[in-house]
Hints:
By secondary structure, the protein is mainly alpha-helical. The protein is 67% helix and 3% strand. The protein has one domain (8-196).
Amino acid sequence: MYHGPVNPLKVIVAWGAFALLHSVTVSEPYERWARGVLGERRFRAYHRLFFTLYSAAATAAVLLYVRSLPDAPLYRLDGWIRTLFHGVQILGAGLLLWTPWDLKEFIGLRQWERQRAGEEEAQGRNERLFTGKGYGLVRHPLYFGCSLLLAFHPVQTRNSAATAAAAIAYFYIGTFFEERRMERKFGEAYREYKRRVPRFFPLPHRGHI
Protein backbone atom coordinates (compact mmCIF):
# COMPACT_ATOMS: atom_id res chain seq x y z
CA MET A 1 0.00 0.00 0.00
CA TYR A 2 1.75 3.15 -1.21
CA HIS A 3 -0.51 6.12 -0.53
CA GLY A 4 -0.66 8.73 2.19
CA PRO A 5 2.16 9.92 4.45
CA VAL A 6 4.55 7.16 5.49
CA ASN A 7 5.41 7.05 9.19
CA PRO A 8 7.71 4.14 10.12
CA LEU A 9 7.53 5.28 13.75
CA LYS A 10 4.04 3.78 13.91
CA VAL A 11 5.52 0.45 12.86
CA ILE A 12 8.17 0.64 15.56
CA VAL A 13 5.60 1.59 18.21
CA ALA A 14 3.36 -1.30 17.17
CA TRP A 15 6.20 -3.80 17.43
CA GLY A 16 7.28 -2.16 20.68
CA ALA A 17 3.82 -2.86 22.13
CA PHE A 18 4.15 -6.46 20.99
CA ALA A 19 7.60 -6.69 22.58
CA LEU A 20 6.22 -5.36 25.87
CA LEU A 21 3.41 -7.94 25.88
CA HIS A 22 5.83 -10.71 24.98
CA SER A 23 8.32 -9.65 27.65
CA VAL A 24 5.64 -9.56 30.34
CA THR A 25 4.31 -12.99 29.43
CA VAL A 26 7.74 -14.62 29.61
CA SER A 27 8.69 -12.91 32.87
CA GLU A 28 9.07 -14.86 36.09
CA PRO A 29 6.43 -12.79 37.97
CA TYR A 30 3.91 -13.62 35.23
CA GLU A 31 4.86 -17.31 35.36
CA ARG A 32 4.42 -17.34 39.14
CA TRP A 33 0.99 -15.78 38.70
CA ALA A 34 0.07 -18.31 36.01
CA ARG A 35 1.24 -21.19 38.20
CA GLY A 36 -1.01 -19.94 40.97
CA VAL A 37 -4.01 -19.64 38.66
CA LEU A 38 -3.54 -22.90 36.74
CA GLY A 39 -1.88 -25.06 39.35
CA GLU A 40 1.47 -26.77 38.80
CA ARG A 41 0.23 -29.69 36.71
CA ARG A 42 -1.92 -27.63 34.33
CA PHE A 43 0.79 -24.98 34.12
CA ARG A 44 3.28 -27.57 32.89
CA ALA A 45 0.78 -29.03 30.48
CA TYR A 46 -0.78 -25.91 28.98
CA HIS A 47 1.20 -22.76 29.71
CA ARG A 48 3.58 -22.97 26.74
CA LEU A 49 0.71 -23.84 24.39
CA PHE A 50 -1.35 -20.88 25.65
CA PHE A 51 1.69 -18.64 25.27
CA THR A 52 2.15 -19.77 21.67
CA LEU A 53 -1.48 -19.12 20.81
CA TYR A 54 -1.70 -15.60 22.20
CA SER A 55 1.76 -14.72 20.84
CA ALA A 56 0.65 -15.87 17.39
CA ALA A 57 -2.55 -13.83 17.70
CA ALA A 58 -0.60 -10.73 18.77
CA THR A 59 1.88 -11.19 15.91
CA ALA A 60 -0.93 -11.52 13.39
CA ALA A 61 -2.62 -8.39 14.76
CA VAL A 62 0.56 -6.32 14.44
CA LEU A 63 1.26 -7.65 10.94
CA LEU A 64 -2.26 -6.74 9.83
CA TYR A 65 -1.92 -3.30 11.36
CA VAL A 66 1.44 -2.69 9.67
CA ARG A 67 0.03 -3.91 6.37
CA SER A 68 -2.80 -1.37 6.66
CA LEU A 69 -0.37 1.56 7.02
CA PRO A 70 0.79 3.69 4.08
CA ASP A 71 4.12 2.45 2.79
CA ALA A 72 6.74 3.35 0.20
CA PRO A 73 9.71 1.57 -1.42
CA LEU A 74 13.04 2.03 0.35
CA TYR A 75 15.45 0.10 -1.86
CA ARG A 76 15.63 -2.76 -4.33
CA LEU A 77 19.03 -4.34 -4.84
CA ASP A 78 19.97 -6.05 -8.09
CA GLY A 79 22.98 -7.69 -9.66
CA TRP A 80 25.87 -9.06 -7.66
CA ILE A 81 24.89 -7.31 -4.42
CA ARG A 82 21.46 -8.96 -4.54
CA THR A 83 23.21 -12.30 -4.94
CA LEU A 84 25.45 -11.44 -1.98
CA PHE A 85 22.44 -10.58 0.19
CA HIS A 86 20.73 -13.84 -0.72
CA GLY A 87 23.96 -15.66 0.12
CA VAL A 88 23.93 -14.17 3.62
CA GLN A 89 20.27 -15.15 3.97
CA ILE A 90 21.16 -18.71 3.01
CA LEU A 91 23.78 -18.69 5.76
CA GLY A 92 21.10 -17.54 8.20
CA ALA A 93 18.74 -20.29 7.09
CA GLY A 94 21.55 -22.81 7.34
CA LEU A 95 22.23 -21.71 10.91
CA LEU A 96 18.56 -22.24 11.77
CA LEU A 97 18.69 -25.74 10.29
CA TRP A 98 21.99 -26.50 12.07
CA THR A 99 20.56 -25.48 15.42
CA PRO A 100 18.68 -28.34 17.09
CA TRP A 101 15.25 -27.38 18.33
CA ASP A 102 12.06 -29.29 18.87
CA LEU A 103 9.11 -27.61 17.12
CA LYS A 104 6.52 -29.49 19.17
CA GLU A 105 8.23 -28.49 22.40
CA PHE A 106 8.67 -24.91 21.17
CA ILE A 107 4.93 -24.47 20.61
CA GLY A 108 3.93 -26.44 23.71
CA LEU A 109 2.55 -29.69 22.30
CA ARG A 110 5.37 -31.81 23.70
CA GLN A 111 4.71 -30.57 27.24
CA TRP A 112 1.02 -31.39 26.90
CA GLU A 113 1.85 -34.88 25.61
CA ARG A 114 4.28 -35.53 28.48
CA GLN A 115 1.71 -34.56 31.07
CA ARG A 116 -0.92 -36.78 29.45
CA ALA A 117 1.57 -39.68 29.58
CA GLY A 118 2.44 -38.92 33.22
CA GLU A 119 6.08 -38.12 32.38
CA GLU A 120 8.23 -35.60 34.22
CA GLU A 121 8.96 -32.17 32.73
CA ALA A 122 12.69 -32.80 33.15
CA GLN A 123 12.58 -35.06 30.11
CA GLY A 124 12.19 -31.99 27.89
CA ARG A 125 15.22 -30.78 25.93
CA ASN A 126 14.85 -27.29 27.38
CA GLU A 127 15.75 -28.67 30.80
CA ARG A 128 19.27 -29.54 29.60
CA LEU A 129 22.05 -27.13 28.68
CA PHE A 130 23.00 -27.81 25.06
CA THR A 131 26.12 -26.09 23.71
CA GLY A 132 26.78 -27.94 20.47
CA LYS A 133 26.16 -27.17 16.77
CA GLY A 134 24.75 -23.64 16.32
CA TYR A 135 25.02 -22.98 20.05
CA GLY A 136 28.76 -23.42 19.74
CA LEU A 137 28.93 -20.51 17.28
CA VAL A 138 26.78 -17.98 19.16
CA ARG A 139 24.72 -18.30 22.30
CA HIS A 140 21.51 -17.34 20.46
CA PRO A 141 21.74 -18.93 17.00
CA LEU A 142 18.00 -18.86 16.33
CA TYR A 143 17.85 -15.11 16.95
CA PHE A 144 21.00 -14.51 14.91
CA GLY A 145 19.80 -16.66 12.01
CA CYS A 146 16.44 -14.87 11.89
CA SER A 147 18.24 -11.52 12.06
CA LEU A 148 20.30 -12.39 8.98
CA LEU A 149 17.15 -13.32 7.08
CA LEU A 150 15.51 -10.01 7.98
CA ALA A 151 18.48 -7.67 7.64
CA PHE A 152 19.69 -8.98 4.29
CA HIS A 153 16.46 -9.03 2.36
CA PRO A 154 17.38 -7.31 -0.94
CA VAL A 155 13.98 -5.62 -1.33
CA GLN A 156 12.73 -3.39 1.45
CA THR A 157 9.95 -0.90 1.91
CA ARG A 158 10.08 1.70 4.68
CA ASN A 159 7.69 -0.33 6.83
CA SER A 160 9.40 -3.67 6.21
CA ALA A 161 12.76 -2.11 7.11
CA ALA A 162 11.26 -0.66 10.31
CA THR A 163 9.80 -4.09 11.11
CA ALA A 164 13.17 -5.76 10.55
CA ALA A 165 14.97 -3.18 12.70
CA ALA A 166 12.45 -3.53 15.53
CA ALA A 167 12.60 -7.33 15.43
CA ILE A 168 16.41 -7.48 15.43
CA ALA A 169 16.62 -4.97 18.27
CA TYR A 170 14.13 -7.02 20.28
CA PHE A 171 16.04 -10.24 19.57
CA TYR A 172 19.24 -8.68 20.88
CA ILE A 173 17.70 -7.01 23.93
CA GLY A 174 15.85 -10.23 24.70
CA THR A 175 19.12 -12.15 24.96
CA PHE A 176 19.99 -10.28 28.17
CA PHE A 177 16.75 -11.27 29.89
CA GLU A 178 16.95 -14.82 28.59
CA GLU A 179 20.51 -15.24 29.83
CA ARG A 180 19.58 -14.14 33.33
CA ARG A 181 17.07 -16.97 33.39
CA MET A 182 19.64 -19.41 32.04
CA GLU A 183 22.19 -18.42 34.66
CA ARG A 184 19.66 -18.93 37.45
CA LYS A 185 18.77 -22.30 35.94
CA PHE A 186 22.22 -23.71 35.06
CA GLY A 187 24.54 -21.66 37.25
CA GLU A 188 28.28 -21.97 36.69
CA ALA A 189 27.85 -24.25 33.68
CA TYR A 190 26.12 -21.43 31.80
CA ARG A 191 28.60 -18.81 32.98
CA GLU A 192 31.46 -20.94 31.66
CA TYR A 193 29.57 -21.29 28.36
CA LYS A 194 29.24 -17.49 28.21
CA ARG A 195 32.99 -17.14 28.59
CA ARG A 196 33.61 -19.43 25.60
CA VAL A 197 30.91 -18.42 23.12
CA PRO A 198 29.88 -14.93 21.93
CA ARG A 199 26.36 -13.71 22.63
CA PHE A 200 24.97 -12.70 19.25
CA PHE A 201 27.69 -12.05 16.67
CA PRO A 202 30.23 -14.80 15.87
CA LEU A 203 33.31 -12.67 16.55
CA PRO A 204 36.43 -14.15 18.15
CA HIS A 205 37.37 -13.19 21.70
CA ARG A 206 34.25 -11.09 22.18
CA GLY A 207 32.02 -13.35 24.28
CA HIS A 208 30.02 -10.43 25.66
CA ILE A 209 28.67 -9.33 22.24
